[in-house]
């Protein structure tokens, strides 16, 4: 087996491995979001302990910080799914183009 044939056979497997590694790397953002949410509520607890009269206003800011941090965290699974579904190897895309359509019969409409 020559090198060219070996490279053509291993290309889809390498692409699948790269897609899995990319999707795994994209989900690391979930850990960052957890740390961010922990920091938001830790700061809330410290702020309320220092000045209890501002607890209601500080809680509103904490919820806003939580929502923004969680919104960033929602991009992690979205990117992982994009990486897994969008990138295809040349053989996969060629085989999809080669498939026959579902219906071979043309539907003709009657004249009005």
UniProtKB/TrEMBL annotation:
**Which parts pass through the membrane?**
21-41, 61-87
Q: How does it sit in the membrane?
A: Multi-pass membrane protein
Chief location bin: membrane
Q: Which keywords belong to this entry?
A: CF(0), Hydrogen ion transport, Ion transport, Lipid-binding, Membrane, Transmembrane, Transmembrane helix, Transport
- Compartment list: Membrane
Q: Which residue intervals define the domain V-ATPase proteolipid subunit C-like in the entry?
A: 21-83
Q: What does this protein do?
A: This protein is one of the chains of the nonenzymatic membrane component (F0) of mitochondrial ATPase.
Assembly description? F-type ATPases have 2 components, CF(1) - the catalytic core - and CF(0) - the membrane proton channel. CF(1) has five subunits: alpha(3), beta(3), gamma(1), delta(1), epsilon(1). CF(0) has three main subunits: a, b and c.
Q: Which family does it belong to?
A: Belongs to the ATPase C chain family.
Quote the protein name from its UniProt record.
V-ATPase proteolipid subunit C-like domain-containing protein
Q: Which organism is it from?
A: Hibiscus sabdariffa (roselle)
């Amino acid at each position: 087996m020559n090198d060219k044939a070996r490279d053509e056979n291993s290309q889809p497997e390498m692409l699948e491995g790269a897609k899995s590694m990319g999707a795994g790397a994209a989900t690391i953002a979930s850990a960052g979001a957890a740390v961010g949410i922990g920091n938001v509520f830790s700061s809330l607890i410290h702020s309320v302990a220092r000045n209890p009269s501002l607890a209601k206003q500080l809680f509103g800011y904490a919820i806003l910080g939580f929502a923004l941090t969680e919104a960033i965290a929602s991009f992690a699974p979205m990117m992982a799914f994009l990486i897994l579904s969008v990138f295809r190897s040349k053989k996969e895309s060629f085989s999809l183009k080669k498939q026959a359509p579902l219906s071979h019969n043309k539907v003709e409409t009657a004249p009005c």
